[in-house]
Design goal:
Length: 442
């Protein structure tokens, strides 16, 4: 392993108390799977770590103790693998731990090479299915195969949950709401659009949301709306984020809805905020909220004509109206050229007036795991919001770690109450795919 810009016990350094080898990282297969991928990580109230992804053709969950060992009280030796319906392949995309430490998993029920559907499963604290949810613990969301007749006239017809790309691995997310309800977000196509569904505690669609239990995210002026991220405000208002293509260039797009699923026409332009630098590409991968309706767009930036090796990690603060947040880097795009081979911030979290982000560099052997930290707002007039935190990564503001022999792909992050940073992803090598978890000091 090689790690740059760190000192032992400094913020950003690998946690030498984590994992069986006390190296701060774990590389593993889910149960006995030949290939394993990790897409999402969550923290339980007892600080145990839950990681979800794929084990061959099944969804997979592993629970780790606070020290990074397999938790034998969960599933079989710390692992749970399965299908949303017997006889069909499945994948896990997002995981969340509820206040009672029950676990919600969102993923894909895969019918064939060109058809899959959003699926949800709920587990008890020991890894058994919670039979009070859905159909004995599992739920495949319906595919009504009908035009969206209740969408505004400006929207082109869409088919809800009837698509070739329903909940492709890594494209779904889940958010906990008061009263045990949950929001499930997924991407569909073609044409490509997003769907946000609200489920009651028992898994039934909450028909008070959008009039039928779900809403469609589709910018009325573009054929495709690629939705990658979801953020919920303190007042339960919803912001969906992703990308659209404008004259061949990738732009960021946000859409805001109230708690009942009605689009907020005061946000951006008729509910949609489109932003990006002209003639260049901005890729939005994730959203984090940081108070008063503000969100931070996380992803990558690429100049016109450049390939992915020229990509720079991107942050862009957006105000409560969808416009630029002048308190975060003066409202301008924030770029970090952390790797010569190009890189992307793919995930993030907010704590103590700072945003911690994680991502990976592009390439083969050059593809490593990156973790960085930024200030959100001015601090005593010394640090402008949007600046790298010099107390992290030995004064640089970011660290670089190689977890596997070849390429890393980072997809999950959670911040512990003590400030430690847990990151998950997939290590790609010539021998196959393995899941990994890394913990850094905060």
């Amino acid at each position: 392993m090689t790690t740059k810009n760190r000192q032992p016990n400094a913020a950003g350094a690998l946690d030498q108390r984590f994992g069986a080898g006390k190296t701060g990282k774990i590389i593993f297969d889910f149960a006995d799977a030949l290939t394993s991928t990790a897409y999402s990580v969550a923290l339980q109230t007892d600080l145990k770590i839950v990681v979800a992804g794929n084990a061959g053709g099944k969804f997979a969950i592993v629970r780790l103790t606070t020290e990074g060992f397999l938790d034998d009280s969960f599933g079989s030796g710390g692992f749970v693998t399965g299908e949303f319906q017997q006889g069909f392949n499945a994948s896990g995309s997002a995981v969340s731990s509820l206040p009672d430490n029950k676990i919600i998993l969102v993923g894909s029920h895969i019918v064939g090479s060109s058809e899959s559907h959003v699926a949800v499963a709920k587990f008890l604290t020991n890894g058994d299915l919670d039979t009070t949810f859905g159909d004995r613990g599992r739920l495949i969301l319906p595919a009504p195969l009908k035009a969206e007749s209740s969408m505004p006239a400006a929207h082109p017809p869409r088919l809800a949950w009837a698509s070739e790309r329903s909940a492709a691995a890594g494209s779904a997310s889940i958010h906990k709401l008061p009263g045990g309800k949950i929001l499930v977000h997924s991407q569909h196509g073609y044409p490509t659009y997003g769907v946000i569904a609200r489920l009651n505690e028992n898994g039934a669609l909450d028909t008070s949301f959008g009039g039928r239990g779900y809403i469609v995210v589709a910018h009325p002026d573009f054929d495709n709306t690629y939705t990658n991220a979801l953020q919920v405000d303190a007042d339960n208002a919803i912001i969906a984020g992703g990308n659209i293509i404008v004259q061949g260039k990738t732009r960021c797009v946000l859409a805001r809805y109230d708690a009942d699923g009605k689009i907020d026409t005061a946000y951006g332009q008729n509910g949609y905020a489109v932003f990006g630098r002209s003639n260049e590409n901005q890729q939005l991968e994730h959203l984090v909220g940081y108070g008063d309706g503000k969100v931070l767009a996380i992803g990558a930036f690429r100049e016109e004509g450049a390939d992915f090796s020229a990509s720079q990690c991107m942050l862009w603060g957006r105000d409560s109206d969808g416009g630029p947040d002048k308190g975060f880097n003066k409202g301008l795009i924030t770029l970090a050229p952390v790797a010569e081979s190009g890189a992307i911030w793919s995930i993030g979290g907010v704590s103590n007036n700072k945003v911690t982000v994680a991502g990976f560099s592009y390439g083969a052997e050059e593809s490593d795991t990156f973790v960085g930290r930024y200030h959100l707002t001015d601090i005593d007039g010394e640090n402008s919001g949007g600046s790298l935190d010099s107390s992290f990564g030995g004064g640089v503001g970011w660290v670089r770690t190689k977890t596997g022999p070849n390429a890393d792909v980072v997809s999950g992050l959670v911040l512990q109450p003590d400030g430690k940073i847990v990151v998950c992803g997939t290590s790609i090598s010539t021998t196959g795919l393995k899941a990994f978890v890394v913990r850094c000091l905060g």
